[in-house]
Amino acid sequence: MDKQTQAEVLLEAMSYIEKYRNKILVIKYGGNAMQSEDLKQMVMRDLSILKFVGIKVVLVHGGGPEISQTLDRMGIPTRFVDGLRYTDGETAEVVRMVLAGKVNKSLVNMLCMRGAQAVGLSGMDGNLLLCSKQSEELGFVGKIEKVNVKVLTDCLDAGYIPVVSSVGCDGEGNVYNVNADTAASAVAGALKAESLILMTDIRGLLRDRSDDESLIRKVYVSDIPALVKDGVISGGMIPKVECCKDAIRKGVNRVFITDGRVKHSILLELLSDEGMGTMFVKGD
User: Fold this and answer.
1) Global pTM?
2) Among 45, 55, 67, 261, whose Cα sits 20 to 30 Å from the Cα of 225?
3) Cα–Cα dist 3/277, whole Å
4) How is residue 123 annotated by DSSP?
5) Strands ordered across the beta sheet of 175-177
6) pLDDT in tens, 23-72
7) Which strand (E) or helix (H) includes residue 169?
8) How far apart are CA 31 and CA 34, in angstroms?
9) What is the pLDDT of residues 138-153, one digit of tens each?
10) Among 12, 20, 67, which Cα is nearest to 178's?
């Protein structure tokens, strides 16, 4: 890249940095997008950069593969119902151990090593994610009833990046396994975040799932029913898009589904004109 191009890239990024300065950005990170250690390190570096330029970052994470590996090692069988992990009491304790312990503290450590002060939380801390059972068939899979955001705003005001594991609780002390997309959407809506980014292992919403070049770059909330009817939004993409829609209806201005396997995907999504994945916005 020559110096002129470097200057143009920087100027393009600066306009977006000004737009997001002192605004809240919620990022969901988890699943297969977390499998590469090099990419994980790069994501944490990118979040540190966003923090240093004045953007208030909240990281919400899952860790399904880590949970599955731990259950296998412990000899606890895994069963899925409609794509969601059936969670009995024993499995819920493993989920808490893996997400709130191992995964959460690893991400916090990576951020702190890059000079971005971070604090690890779970949805149980400060009753952040109060839940009830989503259904009896799923066991302790949580439906979020309330988000108590004060613990997050206190961290943000003190200059920390809150790193939130998708584990919830109820008033009786039960532990709930919460889908990370759902948790991030609820947190972003409660904070009235400027944007929410859902990092995943696909490029975005594709008109043809076998063709990466059929990426739909912008979707209005009003377009979603027709896209579902036409089969463009189907399978596991349906609940993900529902999370996008719910966040926007709760006051989030933009929601992105972007490919977490691509280097610097967060920066490319936020700080460039073209973006990376699919952007969801309100309106027609």
Assistant:
1) 0.93
2) 261
3) 28
4) T
5) 142-147, 129-133, 167-169, 175-177
6) 999 999 987 667 788 888 999 999 999 999 999 999 999 988 899 999 99
7) strand 167-169
8) 6
9) 999 999 999 999 999 9
10) 67
